[in-house]
Amino acid sequence: MYVEIVFHGRGGQGGVTAANILAGAAVREGKWSQSFPHFGAERRGAPVKAYARISDKPILRHSQVKKADIAVVLDKELFKLVNITGTVKENGVIVANIPPGSTVNLDGSQSLYCVDALEIARRLKLFVAGWPVVNTSMLGALVKATGVVSLDSVLAEIKSYWPGKAGEVNAEAARAAYGETLRCI
Predict the structure, then answer these.
(1) Is the pTM of this model over 0.90?
(2) Domain 2-183 indexed as CATH 3.40.710.10
């Protein structure tokens, strides 16, 4: 098993944190993992990427991911700004924060899984500095779409990352997204 994941988000949305939590969840399961950001001098709201690798063997590669097996898109508007399908292998998986039933033009043969992570954040009153927090919801959606790690491992890692009430609410967001994620294409 060797999986590469790219998280597409905007600065301040928690894409880097999501990659770190995913890597920690993999370690909880006895897997090898890496997580790392890729951005320059971007500011809050600018498009950014973060990466994760998960394997059942030591990971010797330490370079940027060129074509990932899975892309996680935290903001649907990024489909207009970034060539998302260009960052994912043919027959790969895209997990996106878009309401089921929405249309997104894909130019590849990737599968698309949808979840309305914004609605989950609003419903749970999960905001930081006035922005809805969708990264933990997207981890639940990622797990539902791919099974790359277990939901239990993600929930435990979220609660470890944020002890107390913050961890509980973020874990509930991941659990809700796991239940609400649908295959759209």
Answers:
(1) yes
(2) no
